[in-house]
Amino acid sequence: MDRPQAPLEEARRVSSDFGLTHWALITLVILAFLGAIYVAEAVIAPVAFSLFLIAIVWPLQFRLQTYIPRLIALAISVMLLVVAFSGFASLIVWAFSRVGRWILINLSRFQALYNQMAFWLEEQGIAVASLWADHFNISWIVGLMQKLTGQVNTTLSFWLVVLVYVILGLLEVEGTARKIGTLPNRRIARVLLAGSEEAAAKIRRYMVVRTMMSVLTGVLVWAFAMLFGLPLAQEWGVIAFTLNYIPFIGPFIATLFPTLLAMVQFDTWQAVIVVFACLNVIQFVVGSYIEPRLSGTMLAMSPFVVLFSIFLWTFLWGLPGTFIGLPITIAVLTFCAQDPSTRWLAIQLGPPEETDQPIPDHAHPEA
User: How far apart are alpha carbons 31 and 101 in whole angstroms?
Assistant: First the structure.
């Protein structure tokens, strides 16, 4: 009676082994792909950033070239892009330089705070002086300055390469779309065209919402700093505005800096705790309550996926990856949603509502 069940059990075991092998191969392919991206950062990162900027600038370029010659429209689009990024960089440099100058002027107050904390830690059996001497010496400072100088040079070179890619890419958007439309495999052509269009629209919406929330966060932080008597209120507002473009990490840093300043500005720890708590309330209300209602389900993603993508791309590409990690994830999930074989991944990692579900595949008959 038990003999007929043996082939069935054997088939189940073989099917299970095949499934494990299949997922193991997929994992190895993903790890190899991420490893290649990590190694080829100098080549791939500028291309990814240029595609991100092209998705934002292309609607302006398309509208302009319907009224004026394409090259003149391209010059205007690129000039506006350069002005926007130059203004953004100038705000960052202005705010942080002002904060740095204030710290240098009030260095004695920070020294007094350090002495108090060092005395308390030494009472607890922690020798702060020896740790400072071992790790924060002249060679460490020189190495840090060299690293910062090299980072500035690398950043300038990176943006020059990105700008060249953006100029060339804006000239080839329409031609590339026509080439994709002529692909013999209509399924691949549909996925590429629809995915590109929808991903670009989502990235533009993401940047609009993120900019609005960054402005709101900056204004609220500035108003709170003014009312609470924190120095550099305008600077903290600008820093909150700029860092808010980096989810999770940016808002945390934007609340940490004013709190550290409040530690030397106020005499009581209660005031410091109030500053830290109020700044976090501002970030929470804007980031967790207002922003999701403006972005809607189009950009809905699991908070775990958002945080993981930021850390992953920061590890792979450093600071550029921190900024562009979430747009890359949005684009990947959008392309996954275009095909039935990968739609499950888009649903699991970026759960849309029923009204936001991708159009069923039977609505797009194969040619």
Answer: 45
Q: What interhelical angle do 186-228 and 233-243 show, nearest 10?
A: 160
Q: How far apart are the first and last CA of the chain?
A: 52
- Quote the tokens at residue 98: 């002002």
CB 78 within 8 A of CB 167: yes
Q: Which residue intervals of the chain are DSSP H helices?
A: 5-39, 41-64, 70-105, 107-123, 128-135, 138-181, 186-228, 233-243, 249-265, 269-284, 291-295, 303-317, 319-336, 343-349
Q: How many CA atoms lie within 13 A of 237 on its CB side?
A: 17
| Total residue length of the chain | 367
Q: Quick one: 350 exposed, middle or buried, by C-beta within 10 A (0-12, 13-18, 19+)?
A: buried
Q: Which residue has the tokens 């700044």?
A: 279
Q: Is the pLDDT of residue 41 over 60?
A: yes
Q: pLDDT for 280-339, tens place per residue? A: 899 888 877 787 777 655 566 777 788 888 888 888 888 788 888 889 988 988 898 888
Identify whether the C-beta of residue 349 lies closer than 8 Å to the C-beta of residue 302.
yes
The pair of structure tokens assigned to 184 is 């013999």
**Spatial distance between the Cα atoms of 171 and 167, rounded to a whole number of angstroms:** 7
- Chain-centre distance of CA 3, in angstroms? 59
pLDDT at 215: 93
Amino acid identity for residue 170 in this structure = L
Q: Is 291 exposed, middle or buried (0-12, 13-18, 19+ CB in 10 A)?
A: buried
Q: Which pLDDT belongs to residue 256?
A: 86
Mean pLDDT of 347-355: 59
The per-residue pLDDT for range 108-142, each reduced to its tens digit, is 777 777 677 767 666 666 665 555 555 555 455 55
Instruction: Determine the Cα–Cα distance for residues 58 and 60; give it in Å rounded to an integer.
Output: 5
Residue 196 contacts residue 266 (beta carbons within 8 Å):
no
CB atoms within 10 A of CB 73: 19
Buried-state track 204-222, b at ≥16 Cβ within 10 A, e below 16:
ebbeebbeebbebbbebbb
- Average pLDDT on 246-271 reads 82
Instruction: Compute the mean pLDDT over every residue in the chain, rounded to the nearest whole number.
Output: 80
Instruction: Say if residues 222 and 237 touch (Cβ distance below 8 Å).
Output: yes
